[in-house]
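Practice problem 4.
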């Protein structure tokens, strides 16, 4: 397993190609515009290129399933595209999320916060 992980994290060509072809999120490796193959969606490559400018001291990994309760997570995933395609406003999207989150919060479904590591 260790050999596979070492190969996987060192394989920038495969990581970038997987993003282009399948929309796979890259692991936390430093990627630049030169790493992405021609034809990669420029919005995708820009996100990961800009993330690389942050150091581990000021950025933690973010996944919706880690920090959001289930119905809020589903709302985030299913409804965010409507903001991007301008079918809804950011304010309306946030208001919808707030309503769902408040219900889940009252039900005790919000994951507990953890103390961040110090460097």
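Answer key:
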């Amino acid at each position: 397993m260790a050999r596979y992980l070492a190969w996987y994290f060192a394989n920038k060509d495969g990581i970038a190609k997987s993003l282009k072809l399948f929309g796979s999120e890259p692991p936390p490796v430093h990627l630049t515009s030169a790493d992405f193959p021609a034809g990669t969606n420029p919005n995708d490559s820009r996100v990961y290129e800009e993330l690389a400018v942050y150091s581990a001291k000021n950025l933690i990994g973010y996944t919706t399933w880690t920090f959001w309760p289930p119905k809020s997570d589903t709302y985030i995933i299913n409804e965010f595209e409507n903001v991007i395609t301008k079918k809804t406003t950011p304010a309306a999207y946030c208001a919808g999320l707030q309503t769902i989150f408040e219900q889940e919060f009252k039900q005790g479904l919000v994951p507990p916060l953890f103390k961040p590591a110090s460097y």
